[in-house]
Amino acid sequence: MIGKLVRDLKIPDQRHPEKAHRPDNVQPKKPSWIRVKAPTSEGYKETRDIIRGQKLATVCEEAGCPNVGECWSQGHATMMIMGEICTRGCSFCNVATGRPQALDAFEPGRVAHAVSQLGLKHVVVTSVDRDDLEDGGAEHFAQTIRAIRHRAPATTIEVLVPDFLKCGPSALETVVAARPDVFNHNLETVPGLYPEVRPGARYFHSLRILQRAKELDPSIFTKSGIMVGLGEDRQGVLQVMDDMRSADVDFLTIGQYLQPTPKHHRVDRFVTPEEFAGYEKAAYGKGFLMVSATPLTRSSYHAGDDFARLRDARQKRLGA
Fold this sequence. Notes:
320 residues, single chain, alpha/beta, TIM Barrel, two-stranded parallel ribbon, 12 helices, eight-stranded mixed beta sheet, 39% helix
């Protein structure tokens, strides 16, 4: 009886008092710092026309990124290869889940053409999860990297890859051997939330992917990111930072989770800009070369500028 009374007792959340009296099915009000303007610029329209003209998908649109207006107005778009249908069903992600179509052998060339048309100095290439493919799409990533190198040799390339969970080690080796400038794989959240947020993935497998990429090519920059506002606490975020550093990750991104639709994982709370600044300070203290931690931070947000800063940070550290 005592145990039941303790379980039923509603104890206010002392760490986050704004949550104390909010029913679980009610979303917190979106604060002013998370609001963005609708995309209307001519630059946005030009980028959209190039992407559609090459019949490409972008994570900017498929995942409903809040920064699409700003990025596309500057001609920056994150290419999403291997189709628009994902074989996973993560509760935070707005990309459709289902049975994907066969790979398009001409897609790498079209991506390279779009990169050239957009005049990108730095491009981010990501993909859906393709658990239906023996190599998870690793060779398709490699072909896309090689096509961009051929068509736009001055462009630096960042890949944001899936976890290749159902593939052998050769899948990761194939991508790294193609020599991207940045190898990114997102941990997405703290390990305790994986069963409800990222049920098809394994936290320590993802961590090992990052570690192994660096082992295969020590010159490569490694990068990973998480979302906050899913239900994690500060200690959990700090532990993820430690785990990433143990895997020799160079660059950390932290951004606010935004619920794409009512069917997706709910927003637990909106993390304040001051808390993000605290995370950034803590991350630099743990030894990351680069940290981007703001409410609107996303994996590819300002990726080109961040890559330049990342190279400078490495040179300074090596010269120290």
